[in-house]
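Appendix C: a fully annotated inverse folding record. The material below is reproduced so that readers can follow the format used throughout the book. The structure is listed first as tokens, followed by the designed sequence.
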């Protein structure tokens, strides 16, 4: 088989949509797995002046995910890559027009001079008769010379493809055999009155000229594919192999709207998700590995991916699962890497950690590693290290500080901290011993320690965080807590 060439052909509309990312991922995985080529082609014919920004925003999404392309257009400082350019549809207009002309000259297409009014009347009649609205083929058999003369005289016309007789069969890698009778299609328009191409022609010419071998794309295009197959045949290109993949659905099971948070792939970066999580999750929305494995790195995905395990039905977005996967990736990450990924989140939250050593910061990341579900949670998990407690969690005050005996227990805790080394192990052992001696449960002590030291109900392990705070600071905070409880 010839070298695999796949592509993603998005319209740059301002950001990388999660659904486009999914389609891109499967094309990319296939290319990486087979040693093929992944092409980025911009379908930018509708774009307006802000297009450069739109392209940039979309490419930022791909870059964050690590979906890199081997061929694609120039933008910003980056030059065009690849020998099949240009890679912007807007720059390929002449190629599309030429293809339309070729079909015309070979008698595989014809000019249609029907006016909008005529077509409207036809459509209404079809509606009344409960027939699908189809072009009636009036101009199909116009004499070619006459047709050309009318065109040259400036009469408004479109070019329609002469749908051949017979049937079109597509062996879709996901949908199976898709068989359509060509008579279900009318002679569809391929060139507009301006001579510009319609999507169907443009996409076929681009795929054909770029030697695209496989097209993984959204199943919303399935109904277009028979038309595309006819055009591939008519233009003398080899048809690519198609795989139509289900859309990404939101949590309610509706198509993931552009307006929803999370439609933009970079929303997830903002929310503290790892790019490897998104790749992993998005892959599992359309593909099943065939065993219980759920966590995949990028390289593991490339190895494990198989076309025959692509799913036919759409998956609903599942935040819980996404969070869980994110947590798993954070747990398996080398601790220094996790540290380096969480620190920018602290900076963004205005936390100055410049006074802390690298070792301390690594330790801070380490005590959170088992608990974090997103990178952003680091702020809530650790901000108390960097500032005095100005407020205790109100719920916890009720549950802990206002409980009977809280003050006595805080005094016991303070003594433990005063008399022991401030290490996780020493504190743990000493608290356990004192609990036994005073017949107290750990549940009566540890939440009080946590609340006094961090002001919160949840966070990293209490003795771990105490060790990082240091003995003097712990004692100061415990004394403050005692004063606070006395004042309640
Ligand atoms: N621009 C089209 C889309 O984003 C591309 C269709 C295709 O992949 O052929 O849906």
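Designed amino acids, in order:
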């Amino acid at each position: 088989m010839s070298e695999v060439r796949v592509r993603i052909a998005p319209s740059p509309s301002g950001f990388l949509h999660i659904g486009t990312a999914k389609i891109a991922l499967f094309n990319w995985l296939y290319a990486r797995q087979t040693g093929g080529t992944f092409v980025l082609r911009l379908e930018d014919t509708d774009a307006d002046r802000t297009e450069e920004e739109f392209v940039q925003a979309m490419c930022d999404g791909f870059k964050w995910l690590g979906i890199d392309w081997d061929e694609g257009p120039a933008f910003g400082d980056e030059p065009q890559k690849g020998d099949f350019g240009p890679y912007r549809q807007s720059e390929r207009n002449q190629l599309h027009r030429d293809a339309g002309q070729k079909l015309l000259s070979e008698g595989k297409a014809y000019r249609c001079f029907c006016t909008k009014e005529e077509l409207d009347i036809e459509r209404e009649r079809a509606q009344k008769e409960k027939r699908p609205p189809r072009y009636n083929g009036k101009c199909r058999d116009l004499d070619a010379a006459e047709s050309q003369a009318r065109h040259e005289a400036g009469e408004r016309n479109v070019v329609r493809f002469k749908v051949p007789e017979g049937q079109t069969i597509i062996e879709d890698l996901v949908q199976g055999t898709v068989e359509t009778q060509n008579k279900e299609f009318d002679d569809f328009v391929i060139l507009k009155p301006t001579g510009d191409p319609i999507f169907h022609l443009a996409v076929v010419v681009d795929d054909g000229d770029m030697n695209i071998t496989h097209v993984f794309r959204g199943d919303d295009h399935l109904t277009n594919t028979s038309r595309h197959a006819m055009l591939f045949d008519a233009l003398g290109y080899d048809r690519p192999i198609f795989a139509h993949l289900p859309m990404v659905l939101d949590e309610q099971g509706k198509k993931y709207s552009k307006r929803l948070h999370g439609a933009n792939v970079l929303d997830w970066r903002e929310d503290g998700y790892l790019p490897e999580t998104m790749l992993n999750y998005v892959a599992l929305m359309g593909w099943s590995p065939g065993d219980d494995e759920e966590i995949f790195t990028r390289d593991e995905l490339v190895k494990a991916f198989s076309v025959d395990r692509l799913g036919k039905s759409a998956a609903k977005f599942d935040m819980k699962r996404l969070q869980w996967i994110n947590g798993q990736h954070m747990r398996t990450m080398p601790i220094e890497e996790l540290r380096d990924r969480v620190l920018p989140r602290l900076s963004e939250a205005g936390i100055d950690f410049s006074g802390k050593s690298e070792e301390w910061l690594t330790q801070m990341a380490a005590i959170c590693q088992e608990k974090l579900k997103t990178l952003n949670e680091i702020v809530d998990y650790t901000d108390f290290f960097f500032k005095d407690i100005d407020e205790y969690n109100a719920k916890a005050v009720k549950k802990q500080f206002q409980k009977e005996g809280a003050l006595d227990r805080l005094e016991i805790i303070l003594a433990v901290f005063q008399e022991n080394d401030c290490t996780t192990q020493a504190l743990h052992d000493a608290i356990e011993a004192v609990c036994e001696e005073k017949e107290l449960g750990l549940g009566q002590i540890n939440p009080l320690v946590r609340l006094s030291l961090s002001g919160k109900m949840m966070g990293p392990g209490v003795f771990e965080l105490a060790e990082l705070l240091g003995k003097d600071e712990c004692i100061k905070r415990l004394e403050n807590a005692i004063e606070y409880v006395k004042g309640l």
